[in-house]
Known about the structure:
Layout: H1 2-21, E1 28-32, H2 39-55, E2 59-63, H3 70-77, E3 85-90, H4 91-100, H5 108-111, E4 112-121, E5 123-128, H6 140-149, E6 155-158, H7 164-176, E7 181-184, H8 189-195, E8 201-205, H9 206-214, E9 218-223, E10 249-256, H10 261-276, H11 278-287, H12 296-317
Parallel strand pairs: 1-2, 1-3, 6-7, 6-8
Antiparallel strand pairs: 3-10, 4-10, 5-8, 5-9
Amino acid sequence: xxxxxxxxxxxxxxxxxxxxxxxxxxxxxxxxxxxxxxxxxxxxxxxxxxxxxxxxxxxxxxxxxxxxxxxxxxxxxxxxxxxxxxxxxxxxxxxxxxxxxxxxxxxxxxxxxxxxxxxxxxxxxxxxxxxxxxxxxxxxxxxxxxxxxxxxxxxxxxxxxxxxxxxxxxxxxxxxxxxxxxxxxxxxxxxxxxxxxxxxxxxxxxxxxxxxxxxxxxxxxxxxxxxxxxxxxxxxxxxxxxxxxxxxxxxxxxxxxxxxxxxxxxxxxxxxxxxxxxxxxxxxxxxxxxxxxxxxxxxxxxxxxxxxxxxxxxxxxxxxxx
Length: 322
C-alpha cells in the first residue's frame, strides 16, 4: 500500500510538471486597473506583445478601471489561480489602497502573488500651455506664486484617489503651502482635462505625458524623483528647485494567490528577459520607464516595504475613498 501511494504521488507530480512544461495552453489575460492610454496600459501592451511573439501564444490586455484601481485588483484576486489571469497595476492600488480603504474585497497585500516588477517610473509636474483662463506658468516659481495668490483657483488632477499623482500632489501642496484642490479622475481622463486647461497642474508618470511634452501641449516644471529622468534630462528635480521631496511610481505584474510557483517563476523569467532586450529597454527608457530586474522573492519583499513606507503618509493626508 505504501509503495502504491508513492507511485500515485510520483505520477501526479509528473503530470503536474508535464502540464506546466506545456504552459501556456490557452490565451493569457493581462488585466489593467486603469483606462487605456495610461502608463499601466502602455507597459502591459508592450509586455503582452513580446510574450505573444516569444511564446507563440495569445496574450490579451483587458482594461477594467474603476474604484481607484480596486476593480481590476478584485477581478484578478477572485480569478482562478491557474496562470491564465494576471494583473498589471501601479503602486497606488497595491501599496496605498490597503491603508486608504478600510474594507477591501481583495487585499492586494495578502491575496495577490507578486510576479515581476516591470518598471520604476518618475512622475513629472506638468502644466498646460494653452486653454481658456490658463495662467502663464513658465517655471516652478511662477506656479508657487500663482498658487499662493489664488488659492481658490488652483486645482491638480490625478488618475484616482491614492495614486502616485494624488500622493505626490498632496506632498507637494504640503511642502509649498499652496493648498490646491485635488480632483481625482478614473484614469487618463485627467491628462485630457489638463491639456484642455481645466486643471492648473498635475503630477503625471513620464510615459503617459512625454509625447504631449514633446508636442508642446504640456510644459514640464519638475521631476519628482531624486535624480533626473533620462527621458527628460533637461527637467530639474524638485529638490534642485528647493522643494524637499522625492517620490516616484512603479508598475508590477501580479497573479491570484495560489498560482503554481513554477508558472510564477516562468513568467518572472520571461518578463525579465523581455525588459532586458535592448530594443524593448530602449523604447521604455525613451518613455521614461526605468527597468529594475527583480526575482519573485525580491519583488515580494519590495511590495511589502512599499506598503509599510506609504501607510503613514496616506494616514497623514487624510484622504478618504470616494
